[in-house]
Fold:
Amino acid sequence: LTATTMSMQFFSPDVARGLGGPDWLVARRLAALQALETTPFPSTEEEIWRYSRIGELDLGRFRPVPGAELDEPGSERAPGGGPWALEAGRHAALLVVRDGRVVHHEIDPALAALGVRVADLATCDDDAEVQAALGSVSDAAPDYFTLLHDAFMPGGALVVVPDGVVVDDPIVVLHWAEGDGEASFPHTLVIAGRNAEVTVLERFGSPDTEHLVDAVSELVLHENASVRYLTSQEHGARTWHIGLQRAHLARDARLHSAAVALGGDYARLRTEARLDAPGAQSEMVAAYFGSERQMLDFRTLQDHAAPRTRSELLFKGAVEDTATSVYSGMIRLREEAQKSAAFQTNRNLVLTEGASAESIPNLEIFANDVQCSHGSTVGPIDDDQRYYLESRGIPPTDAERLIVLGFFDDIFARLPHAGLVGSLRRSVVDKVERSGSGARR
Structure:
């Protein structure tokens, strides 16, 4: 690694302190910054970074958005999410986050009366529950970028649903990042109490600026909680996004999580679930579409740490032009995970000669009474499908669009919120229709 790559001239303790917030949050930043000093920068020689473009990232080209430049709560200056929120339909609460700081939040008064909370983490001065929960999930899976995130997160979106409360309409979290040569560190913490139910829809967006987004989303599911969660990444073409979305599930908790990735230059997401007690269930689905020179990079973990747990995963992606996708997934069944079941499937369409997709499913099985399977495919559009449509008078471009949409249909059908299916399908159609570089297979 070059000295430039490792440059941290803009990532200083003074900048971390200048982000403000309660003393406990400042102390957390400084502790992370200290730990970062002895943490090596990632390399493609590490299996978890294999096939990535991490060697291209020069931190010396970015600076954290200074505290003085962050919008204060209530500034309302956060474009890039309004239409998406409208398409999501009626919602129970809304948080708008700009460069990692909540600038607007609202909630149905009836839910607030039941104890449902939405807020900026940086405003939780004396909240013992929030202090204990923040990092309780992400700290269990640390790496260079989670530490960098912790050192410079200015606050973040907090969602708390108390025991026994059912939130019927979704809670919407809109993240917007901008500024050439800047880095932002958005954080989302969702706490679902015992027997609570909630749907959280999270969108990341940015304009066409060179920006680094280092994001962490933590989901804490207490006993018999049910969480439906969707994250959508539709960044501008020059944004780098490196994210972690991780959940811890207690007894009989149920998580249905979905990811949609369409934007960015290099966009990486670690999606992880740890099933900590009997009866916990996790379902993960994702749809991703890369074009031009994009790289969309997914690393998943289904971690069974208790007996009689269940996880299912279905990730589907398409690439065209000279885009690349990477999927690397791990099913881990620990010794204590007897009578558990885990399934993992990754499917990829390669639409042009210059595009490529890597798919690496993995298993670690230490229990001897389990059900487990994994599988992956990488290939072009099926010639028989194309011939069938074209022989019935459908033009080649329309035929391809129909095949690609059909490929993603089962993912769209399993998204946690049906209201956004239409807009996400249109985004996929737009990418197909904008294509033209490269020879079709």
